[in-house]
Specification:
Strand content: under 5%
Mean pLDDT: 85
Number of strands: 0
Keywords: DNA-binding, Sigma factor, Transcription, Transcription regulation
CATH topology of the largest domain: Rna Polymerase Sigma Factor, Chain: A
GO molecular function: DNA binding; sigma factor activity
Shape: globular
Family: Belongs to the sigma-70 factor family. ECF subfamily.
Largest sheet: none
Organism: Lignipirellula cremea
CATH class of the largest domain: Mainly Alpha
Protein name: ECF RNA polymerase sigma factor SigW
Number of helices: 8
Length: 184
């Protein structure tokens, strides 16, 4: 049975009924955005990969709690954000390494080398500034900018009011402007 073109919510409804094949499709669909989110949040590729597995294990384990047609993306990132928060609480605070947030610049068919170098330097500066944000602000920035979630979806994912999410984004952007202005 081919479910490849079906919406996420349909697939999750099938997963809730025990369809493992549909879970595999969701894992493949969200592998990149979810892992990117986790790496940006945790700053550690290996820990992010472990959390990725934990998130999808939780999706399977709590599949009966999913109510169709609740947006799957928000539900998934809620689980991921909760896993990150739990990990932050249980671990010793460590600075987020800049390398976890860096964006690589592709050389082939890309910008001129000096533009690429400038772009890479800018990406490193932004990554360093994002790494300094408190976890709740970093969560909002990563979900909004890199994962494209709406404020309403982020509110659901973080368990906060939409106004609080917008406030976190406002304060995060102000902090980023201050950090980046100091470098200019």
């Amino acid at each position: 049975m081919n479910h490849g073109g079906k919406p996420d919510e349909y697939l999750m409804a099938q997963v809730a009924q025990g369809e493992r094949e549909c879970l595999g499709l969701l894992v493949r669909r969200y592998a990149s955005p979810l892992l990117t989110f986790l790496v940006r949040m945790m700053g550690d590729q290996h820990r992010a990969e472990e959390l990725f597995q934990e998130v999808f294990l939780a999706v399977w384990k709590h599949r009966k709690q999913y109510t169709f047609p609740k947006p799957f993306k928000s539900w998934l990132f809620t689980i991921a954000a909760n896993r990150c928060r739990a990990d932050f609480r249980s671990a010793k605070p460590q600075p987020l390494p800049i390398s976890a947030l860096e964006t690589s610049v592709k050389a082939s068919n890309g910008p001129a080398p000096d533009d690429a170098l400038l772009g890479q330097e800018t990406a490193q500066q932004v990554a360093a500034a994002v790494a300094l944000l408190p976890p709740q602000q970093r969560t909002v920035v990563v979900l909004r900018i890199w994962n494209g979630l709406s404020y309403a979806e982020i509110a659901v994912a973080t368990g906060r009011a939409e106004g609080t999410v917008r406030s976190h984004m406002h304060h995060a952007l102000a902090a980023l402007r201050t950090s980046l202005a100091a470098l200019a």
